[in-house]
Amino acid sequence: MVKFYLKISAELDNVTELEPLDTPQEPHYYTFKIECTKCRTVHDKDVQINRFEKHEMGGSRGEANFVFRCKECKNEHNASIERTNAKLENGDSKPVAILEIDARGLDFVEFIPDGKFQAKGVETGTVFDEVDLEDSEWYDVDEKTNEEVSITDVKWTISRS
C-alpha cells in the first residue's frame, strides 16, 4: 500500500480556511487521473472518489472508497481517501495536505479541482461555500465589508508519504 497526500497552495486575499465542501449530505467528488502501477497504463478517463462511498474489494478483502480493474492488465486496484483536519490558512507559505490517500496498485497522476470548496472571510467570518477552483482562481465580494476577496495562483500537488 502506498500513501499519497493531496496538497494545495494558493494566494488567499481577505479569506482563510480554504477546504473542500465535503459532508455526508453533500459529498465532494475528488477527481483524479490515475495510472496502473502494474502495466503503467494511464486510465483514459478521469476517476471520481467520494470518501463516504464504500465498494467491496474482490476476494472479500474488505471495502474501499474506489475499486478499479485495469483494462490493460486486468488487475484490480483500490484506494481509500480521508480528509485531514488541515485547511489552507491566509498566510500559509507551504502547501497544506487536505487529503490522505491509501492506494494499492494505483498512482495518482493529477488532481482535477471540479468540486465546490469553501472559505471564510478574514475580517467577518462570512462563509463562501460556492468557491469554484477549476480555473485556479476565484473572486467575490464580502458584502459585510464591501471588499474584494480572492483565491489566486492555486497549485495542487500529489506527494508520496
UniProtKB/TrEMBL annotation:
This is DUF866-domain-containing protein. It comes from the Eukaryota. PANTHER family: CXXC MOTIF CONTAINING ZINC BINDING PROTEIN. It holds the Pfam family CXXC_Zn-b_euk. The keyword Cytoplasm does not apply. It comes from Lodderomyces beijingensis. Belongs to the UPF0587 family. InterPro entries: CXXC_Zn-binding_euk. SUPFAM superfamilies: MAL13P1.257-like. Keywords: Metal-binding, Zinc. The keyword Metal-binding applies.
